[in-house]
Amino acid sequence: MMERHEIEAFLTLAEELHFRRATERLGLAHGRVSQTIKQLERRLGVSLFDRTSRRVALTPAGQRLYDDLAPAYRRIQEAVARTIAYGKGVTGTLRVGFSSQWAGDAVLEAADVFRGRYPDCAVEVQEVQLADPFGPMRAGELDLQLTEFPVDEPDLVAGPVIFSEPRALIVPARHPFARRESVCLEDLARTSLVAMSGAIPDYWLDYHYPRETPEGRPITHSASAVYWAEVLSLVAMGRGVSPAALRAAQYHGRPGIVFVPFRDAPPIEYGLIWPRSGHTARVRAFAEILHQIAP
């Protein structure tokens, strides 16, 4: 028979093939993994690892033990995780929204990890339009959402920032700013903005589509759009410029527009929100995973 600490030490060393890394991964004292493996080999009467000053490698017997033991141990861990999840209420269905494609990528990646960790809980993912950023959640369609901050709503909880993105200014390809390496916030007073409209709080609009520069110079708003695709079309038509995350260029680049980085604008922060009465075990578990894997 193998004790639990022997199984964990063997499997970890077999994966790391490095005593120090295996020891650090297990959070053990220096030399503990080496001692455990030596005791295990003596008891089994076989050598599991070849050790030299430069490398650690599995012996044929060690490889056979790993191939047989690793899948069984994973099944045990999964069974324990399912039991804990069931006891904590991580079951049922979790509905998660996102408001941009790059936020959607993070949500979908987290959903894959979540399903593997909590197989008794389904995850449904949907896009939320910026024109109505809180509507689906208030309608009871979502339990959790990854969205642009700031969010200051009495019925919603704004969790910690998950990641942030540098800002850029989307300009028409023939605009003078299109030939620059960067722009500054004061430059907004020399052009006009295409802004989002809809059921959007004023504080959110003022933050992302300001009416004046940091020095107090007025910024003209020339057009508004309900959907993001409209913003891109209006900018391409020369109706104005629009702030956005710089990463949007990777997803929404198209003829007629150029993404010019800001050199002095704060980044756009993305965080999780959920209903004030909805801080469930499912929400907590997904938030933890997303925080771990987010860029």
TrEMBL record:
The keyword DNA repair does not apply. The keyword DNA-binding applies. Keywords: DNA-binding, Transcription, Transcription regulation. InterPro entries: LysR_HTH_N, LysR_subst-bd, WH-like_DNA-bd_sf, WH_DNA-bd_sf. Pfam families: HTH_1, LysR_substrate. Gene3D superfamilies: Periplasmic binding protein-like II (3.40.190.10), Winged helix-like DNA-binding domain superfamily/Winged helix DNA-binding domain (1.10.10.10). Residues 1-59 form the HTH lysR-type domain. Belongs to the LysR transcriptional regulatory family. This is LysR family transcriptional regulator.
